[in-house]
Design a protein that fits this description.
Strand order of the largest sheet: 1-2-3-9-6
Structural class: mainly beta
Oligomer: single chain
Number of domains: 2
Order of helices and strands: HEEEEEEEEEEEHEEEEEEEE
Radius of gyration: 24 Å
C-alpha cells in the first residue's frame, strides 16, 4: 500500500512539473507587435537566464517601399539607437547589425533594410536566475521619400526559467547568421591610400574574388561624414573587385591618419567585417 502511494506521489509530482513547464509563459518571449508609422515591431528573446546571458532581438516589418537604416545610414537617414536605461537586471548589451543594402534615389545613397529586419542583441545579466525586465527605448528612421523619426518603447518580462518558442529560436538564429563575421587573414582585402595633388586622398579596396562580394561599406569615427565606396568599372571576374572612396567628410583641420576604421563587405551568402587603421601613404 505504501509502495503504491509512493509511486502515485512520484507520478503526480511529475505531472505537476510537466504542467508547470507547459504553463510557463513561453508566448511572452515573443512580445506583442506594436504599430509604428508604416511598420510594426516587437521584442523577442531566447537563452538560459541561469547562465547569465540572453539573446534578444528587435524584429521590424516594414510596409512596401519603406525602409529603415543601418548603423551608418549613408547620405541620409537616421541610424537606430537602443536605450536600455529602463531595464532591470541587465549588466551589458551588444547590438548587432545584419548585412545591409545600398539604396540609390534622387536624394543620394543610403544604407539599410526593406521589408524585414531583426537586430540581434546580446545581453549579459547582472544576476543569473532572477526575473529580468527587458525595457527598450528605440529611435528609428522609417523612410520612403521623406524620413519619419520614430521613438517607441518595448517591454518583455523574462522569468528565471522559461521555454523559448521554436519560432523565436528560428528568427533569432537566422538574424545572427546574417550578421557579418570577421574576415580571416587569408580573406582580408588589400586596403591602400593614394594621395592626390590638390584634392583629398583616395582609399582603394581590393577584395579577393573568393569572397564573392556584392557591396562594400566603410565607417570611420562618428564625427566623420564619409560617402559610400564606388565599384570601379574595370574590376571584377577572377581578379576580384576594386572599390574607391574619396576621404571627404573628415572634419576641417583633423588629420585622418591613424584613425580606426571598419570595412563591411556584403555577399549573397556570407558577409565580412574587417577593422583597419588609416596609415599615411
Amino acid at each position: 500500500m505504501i509502495h503504491r502511494f509512493f509511486r502515485f506521489a512520484v507520478l503526480f509530482a511529475g505531472f505537476l512539473l510537466t504542467s508547470f513547464v507547459a504553463a510557463l509563459p513561453s508566448q511572452a518571449l515573443e512580445g506583442a507587435w506594436q504599430d509604428l508609422p508604416n511598420a510594426r515591431a516587437r521584442l523577442l528573446a531566447i537563452g538560459d537566464p541561469m547562465s547569465g546571458r540572453l539573446l534578444a532581438g528587435l524584429e521590424i516589418e516594414l510596409d512596401k517601399n519603406w525602409k529603415t537604416y543601418w548603423r551608418s545610414p549613408g547620405d541620409s537617414g537616421i541610424p537606430p539607437t537602443f536605450d536600455w536605461s529602463g531595464a532591470s537586471n541587465i549588466a551589458q548589451t551588444r547590438a548587432q547589425f545584419p548585412a545591409p543594402v545600398r539604396f540609390t534615389d534622387e536624394y543620394g545613397e543610403s544604407v539599410g533594410y526593406k521589408k524585414h529586419v531583426v537586430f540581434p542583441i546580446e545581453i549579459d545579466l547582472q544576476r543569473p536566475g532572477v526575473p529580468t525586465n527587458l525595457e527598450l527605448n528605440v529611435i528609428l528612421g522609417i523612410c520612403r521619400e521623406v524620413c519619419i523619426p520614430v521613438s517607441e518603447r518595448f517591454s518583455l518580462k523574462i522569468p528565471p526559467v522559461f521555454v523559448a518558442t521554436n519560432s523565436a529560436k528560428e528568427i533569432l538564429n537566422s538574424a545572427t547568421a546574417s550578421v557579418p563575421i570577421v574576415a580571416s587573414v587569408t580573406e582580408r582585402p588589400q586596403v591602400s591610400i593614394v594621395e592626390r595633388a590638390g584634392t583629398t586622398a583616395l582609399l582603394t579596396i581590393r577584395v579577393p574574388a573568393d569572397l564573392q562580394i556584392q557591396d562594400v561599406f566603410v565607417e570611420g569615427p562618428q564625427t566623420w561624414f564619409l560617402g559610400l565606396p564606388q565599384k570601379l568599372q574595370s574590376s571584377g571576374g577572377t581578379n576580384g573587385s576594386e572599390w574607391a572612396l574619396a576621404l571627404d567628410g573628415v572634419p576641417l583641420g583633423e588629420s585622418p591618419w591613424g584613425a580606426a576604421m571598419r570595412l563591411t563587405m556584403v555577399g549573397p551568402d556570407q558577409s565580412f567585417e574587417q577593422d583597419f587603421t588609416l596609415s599615411k601613404p
